[in-house]
Amino acid sequence: MPELPEVETTVRGLARFLEGKRLVRARVNRPDMRRPFPPGLVQMLTGARVTGLGRRAKFGLIHTDRGQTLVFHLGMSGRWRIDPATDDRHDHLVIETEEHRFALCDPRRFGWVDLVPTESLDAWPSFAGMGPEPLGDDLTVAHLHTALKGRKQAIKLLLLDQRIVAGLGNIYVCEALFRARIDPRKAGGSVSRAALARLVPAIREVLEQSIADGGSTLRDYARPDGELGYFATRFDVYGREGEPCRRDDGGTIRRVAQGGRSTWFCPRCQR
C-alpha cells in the first residue's frame, strides 16, 4: 500500500502540472472504486481552477477555487498517470487541463475520492482526531511522551495509531525504530524521553529520505511520471529477516507478528 512518502511524491509530481491550472474536462470512466464517487463530482471539477495541492496523512488534496477540495486515497495500487499514451481499463477518474491529462488508475479498486469543503477539511471524518503530521513541527518529544504515558501496548503498534501520529505506516515505523535503537515490542509507556528524542528525528529522516528517493516502490506503486523510487534498496530492517544487521554488531534481523502485521528489527541493538 502506498505510504506517506509515496503520497507526498505523488502530490509533488501532480503540483508541477496542476497548480494554478483550470480543469477544462472531467469524466468518470468507472464508478467501481472502494467508495462511490461523490454526487456532482464532474460538474464541480469542470471549469474549476486548482489553487494548490497538499497532503494529510496518506491522503492527497487538490484544492480548487470553488471552495471544494478533491481528496484522494490511493488504496493498494492507485496512482495518477500524467499524459498516458493510451487509455487503461483501470482508469477510474480522468481530469484535464488545456495542456495535460491526468488519469487516476487503480487496478485493485481499493482507492477512493471525495469532495470536501476546504474550510471544513479538519472536521472531515477521516481527518477528525488525527495526530500531528510526522514532518510538521507539532510532532515533538513532549507530544509523544504525553500520548504514550501509561500505555502498555507495544511502541510499534502505538506509532501506527493515526490518533498519535498521522500517516505513519508499517515500513517506515520499522525503519525509524531501528534508527532510534528502540525495540518495537517495548511498551510505549516505558520508552524513555531520551529514546523519544532519538525517535522524533529518526521518523523525519526516514520519511524525508524516502520522499527524496521517490517512494519505496513496493508492488504496484509508481510515481505520476511512471518512474519508480529506490528507497526499498536502502531498507535497514524491513523485509530483511535472517540477514545481518547493517550496524555490524553481530545481530541478525528478526521478524515477528504484531497486530496482524510483520515487524522487522535487530534484537541486539534495539532495546
Automatic annotation (TrEMBL):
<comment type="subunit">
    <text>Monomer.</text>
</comment>
<keyword id="KW-0326">Glycosidase</keyword>
<dbReference type="InterPro" id="IPR010979">
    <property type="entry name" value="Ribosomal_uS13-like_H2TH"/>
</dbReference>
<keyword id="KW-0456">Lyase</keyword>
<dbReference type="InterPro" id="IPR035937">
    <property type="entry name" value="FPG_N"/>
</dbReference>
<keyword id="KW-0378">Hydrolase</keyword>
<dbReference type="Pfam" id="PF01149">
    <property type="entry name" value="Fapy_DNA_glyco"/>
</dbReference>
<comment type="function">
    <text>Involved in base excision repair of DNA damaged by oxidation or by mutagenic agents. Acts as DNA glycosylase that recognizes and removes damaged bases. Has a preference for oxidized purines, such as 7,8-dihydro-8-oxoguanine (8-oxoG). Has AP (apurinic/apyrimidinic) lyase activity and introduces nicks in the DNA strand. Cleaves the DNA backbone by beta-delta elimination to generate a single-strand break at the site of the removed base with both 3'- and 5'-phosphates.</text>
</comment>
<protein>
    <recommendedName>
        <fullName>Formamidopyrimidine-DNA glycosylase</fullName>
        <ecNumber>3.2.2.23</ecNumber>
        <ecNumber>4.2.99.18</ecNumber>
    </recommendedName>
</protein>
<dbReference type="InterPro" id="IPR000214">
    <property type="entry name" value="Znf_DNA_glyclase/AP_lyase"/>
</dbReference>
<dbReference type="InterPro" id="IPR020629">
    <property type="entry name" value="FPG_Glyclase"/>
</dbReference>
<feature type="binding site">
    <location>
        <position position="90"/>
    </location>
    <ligand>
        <name>DNA</name>
    </ligand>
</feature>
<comment type="similarity">
    <text>Belongs to the FPG family.</text>
</comment>
<keyword id="KW-0479">Metal-binding</keyword>
<dbReference type="GO" id="GO:0006284">
    <property type="term" value="P:base-excision repair"/>
</dbReference>
<feature type="binding site">
    <location>
        <position position="151"/>
    </location>
    <ligand>
        <name>DNA</name>
    </ligand>
</feature>
<dbReference type="InterPro" id="IPR010663">
    <property type="entry name" value="Znf_FPG/IleRS"/>
</dbReference>
<feature type="domain" description="Formamidopyrimidine-DNA glycosylase catalytic">
    <location>
        <begin position="2"/>
        <end position="111"/>
    </location>
</feature>
<keyword id="KW-0227">DNA damage</keyword>
<keyword id="KW-0234">DNA repair</keyword>
<keyword id="KW-0238">DNA-binding</keyword>
<keyword id="KW-0863">Zinc-finger</keyword>
<feature type="binding site">
    <location>
        <position position="108"/>
    </location>
    <ligand>
        <name>DNA</name>
    </ligand>
</feature>
<feature type="active site" description="Schiff-base intermediate with DNA">
    <location>
        <position position="2"/>
    </location>
</feature>
<feature type="active site" description="Proton donor; for beta-elimination activity">
    <location>
        <position position="58"/>
    </location>
</feature>
<keyword id="KW-0862">Zinc</keyword>
<dbReference type="GO" id="GO:0003684">
    <property type="term" value="F:damaged DNA binding"/>
</dbReference>
<dbReference type="InterPro" id="IPR012319">
    <property type="entry name" value="FPG_cat"/>
</dbReference>
<dbReference type="Pfam" id="PF06831">
    <property type="entry name" value="H2TH"/>
</dbReference>
<dbReference type="Pfam" id="PF06827">
    <property type="entry name" value="zf-FPG_IleRS"/>
</dbReference>
<dbReference type="InterPro" id="IPR015886">
    <property type="entry name" value="H2TH_FPG"/>
</dbReference>
<feature type="active site" description="Proton donor">
    <location>
        <position position="3"/>
    </location>
</feature>
<dbReference type="GO" id="GO:0008270">
    <property type="term" value="F:zinc ion binding"/>
</dbReference>
<feature type="domain" description="FPG-type">
    <location>
        <begin position="236"/>
        <end position="271"/>
    </location>
</feature>
<dbReference type="GO" id="GO:0140078">
    <property type="term" value="F:class I DNA-(apurinic or apyrimidinic site) endonuclease activity"/>
</dbReference>
<feature type="active site" description="Proton donor; for delta-elimination activity">
    <location>
        <position position="261"/>
    </location>
</feature>
<dbReference type="GO" id="GO:0034039">
    <property type="term" value="F:8-oxo-7,8-dihydroguanine DNA N-glycosylase activity"/>
</dbReference>
<keyword id="KW-0511">Multifunctional enzyme</keyword>
